[in-house]
Amino acid sequence: MLRSSVLFQAVALPYEMLTRHPVWERDCARMALELPAGARHIIDLGCGPGSSTRQLPPGAIGGDHALSMLRRARRRAPGMPLLCLDAAALPVRTASLDAVTFHSVLYLLSDQSATLREAARVLRPGGRAVLLEPQAGPRATLFGLARALPSPRWAVTAALWRAMSKVYGRSSAQSLWTALESAGLRILRIEETLGGLGLLAVAEKP
Questions:
Q1: Domain containing 124 — which CATH number?
Q2: Which end of the chain is more exposed for a tag (fewer CB within 10 A), N or C?
Q3: What residue ranges of the chain have pLDDT lower than 50?
Q4: Gap between the Cα atoms of 206 and 47, Å rounded
């Protein structure tokens, strides 16, 4: 299987075109609503072309391992703070962030446990991790894609995201809950999003 970091170095432009869709960006904006009140120190991990980072409060930092993605983000939002980083070894002080966000990122990473532990490390008490991940199961595929059909462009994006997540992996609500809890985070809620194709998880540093 092609490593996700190599893949996304190669497909930055088509990926940006696919994800620059109102449904995708609406759910990026929804994640911003889950941040703790007054959050200012935020890293958006796996920011890609910046779609999710743009929806966060001013000053949020977009972080990605793929330089090609960061270049797309820079073109789209020239003033956006960006970092090339490894999500499992963040260049950030312990307990210094108000929030860490992941929009369709965790499932692509080779060491998800290390990444979540690192997110927990850099969060201050009361800080939040907000994730949007593909949901496992045939029901999510069937109903999610059926709901996407009235919008052909969104249906294409949803189908490609579904195909990608089949290759790299999907989470059930229970597996995501367990992973976050094992990293030392307290789960506030996990609910369906993107018409059932995804899961939105909100967890807090105790």
A1: 3.40.50.150
A2: N
A3: 1-2, 10, 13
A4: 25
Domain count, the chain: 1
pTM score: 0.90
Q: Quick one: what percent of the chain has pLDDT higher than 90?
A: 68
Report d(CA 19, CA 183) in Å as an integer. Answer: 29
**How far is residue 107's CA from residue 175's CA, in Å, rounded to a whole number?**
12
Phi, psi of 6 (to 5 degrees): -70, -45
Task: List the domain range (segments joined by +) for residue 171.
Answer: 4-204
Q: How far apart are CA 85 and CA 61, in angstroms?
A: 11
Helices (H), the chain: 4-10, 12-19, 22-32, 67-76, 112-122, 138-148, 152-168, 173-182
